[in-house]
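Q: Here's a chain of 695 amino acids. Please give me its 3D structure as tokens.
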Amino acid sequence: MLWTQKIKSFFTRPVFTGDLEKTVHVTLLSLTLNIGVVVLLIVLIGNILGDNVPTSVYITDAIALIIILALRYLLYKGHVRQTGNIFLIASFIFLTITNAMLGTIRTPTASAYILLVAMGCILFERRGAIVTVAMSSLAILGINLAQNAGLLPEPNLTVGITQWVSFTVFLGAAGVLTNFALHTIRQALVCADEELVLRRQAEATLRQRETFLRAITDNIQEMITLISLDGFLQYASPAYQRCLGYDPTAVIGQFGFDLIHPDDAEILQGYLKVALEEGRADKLVTFRARHADGRYICLEASAQFVNNEAGISGIVSVFRDVTAQREAQEQIRLLSRAVEASPISIVMTDVMGNLTYVNPKFTEITGYAFEEVRGHNPRILQSGETPLETYAQLWRTILAGQLWSGEFLNKRKDGRLYWESAVISPITDSTGQTTHFLAVKEDITDRKQMDRALRQSYSELHMRNEELDAFAHTVAHDLKTPLGVIVGFAELLLTNLHELSEEQTLDSLRALSSSGRKANTIIESLLLLSSVRQQDVRTEPLAMDAVIAEAVSRLTNQITSSSAHIQMQEPGAWPTALGHAPWVEEVWVNYISNALKYGGQPPSIVLSARRQPDGFVRFCVHDHGPGLTAVQQARLFTQFERLGKRNVHGHGLGLSIVSRIVGKLGGRVGVESEVGQGCTFYFTLPGTGVESSQD
């Protein structure tokens, strides 16, 4: 009785109340394992009774028997799914090894693959059927190829009791499985009949709801997924392919975190862990996921838990591709940083010209903070020195949708002027309508000052070159004559001194003295011209009547010989001007000397002065000579230039010296004349209270 109970207990399966599916799987596995024990025992006995059966077959059968007994123990402990997986894999391996050792698939053992497929289909439905069919097909193919290649033992194809037993056992197993499947189906049909009415009532509603939900999920741009709590994909909407490039049906059952960027996977898992603990997932989360083409895209996701009677069963997530948005944001961020750090001023206005943005360089250049100029017109920078036509041309150009470039002389907040070059262009929207104007401006004050300094240096260099040329001309011409006289009379005295009379000797000496004085005057004038150019002096108020008296005194002989009449203001009536007395004296000497030469026969000269509205004092020398044409006036104050009679003594340096001296003292020179009306030569000097500028 005890042995009977043990045997009965051995073949009794466990029952799981309330879980019909698990109970069916346990029943099938228990039945199969029990049949496996019986079959292996029969096969083992048949192999022992058979002929030419390799020893390895006995060992394989024994190992298979041990494995089945271990699986029965695991099953009865409640590990149903694990038992099913291991059984199918072990059965496949056992069958494949057995057929390989038999050397062929043309034995009764090969028919057991059919049982393997049936078990896979019953236990794991379609997925199990696909996997077992594929594995069995590959195993059979491999054994055939190995047999054809001579890699397997020579098969024993004799038909005996062993083969009969094997066929009978497998047929019996197939019958048992078929009967079990039919029994299960009948039970399912009974249950289905009971639920059919309710299911039909719900199907219409479910179909409508499914159609509605399908229409939403199929057409919505966002990607929708259903993920189990262990992270496996259970559903993916069609947008999954548009978004990530994967077939939605092909990713079902895959681990959802496999596509997440490694740097973001841990963060996302931490987010889900916290959400599960709190029981809600209402925060947006952003992460990177791998596209089918290998690149990573940026996704923004929101999640919602799916609840059932047992609690949270899954997570429904909605994903939105924000890659382009993030790239645009990054581009904007980089451009913003570039604009903020730009070494040139960048300004934006609306279509009315009101300021909407300035970068820090604008503040650095102008002194205005953005808060001070926001909404104001850039005309607050105008200095009044830029021509109005420049602004008119600017607006005509940019309103026509074209780019304008030019220069402004503007004014800083502190009142200082500065030059800037500007390039202004319109900004349009998607419709081509101008919405803003963008100005890129650069402070070119230093460049302008440098250009002005270069031009001034060039002008001075050019003038000095002209002076050098004129000096060479003077030396070659004006100095040549007196020096020639000096050399000629000196040689005459040296060679004919004893033959000359006393009167001839005196005449020669007088000619030598006159020529020497003339040459000395020319040299002194050249030295004075050079010293004025190079020397800086301190100006002071002048006693002009004393300066004029000294100049007239130097010209006493010339005034007397020409019987000239000079009229001037009373002493003490001369306006006070700023200057350097020795230089101003040379100005008067040259002006009066010029009037003595060209002021008529006899010369009549008027010296005068008056204070101008600008604070400068104008000094004049008027003569009653023949006057000058406009062409002659234009040639005045040019170095080494002589006008008028050729027999008048002079070397052409006087007026150029006057121009240089007066310019150095911050004044101006000029002439007013009409033919037949005489000439008025004048110069101006700063009066007291007027700042003098020396060039």
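Q: Can you summarize the key feature?
A: The chain has 20 helices and 17 strands.
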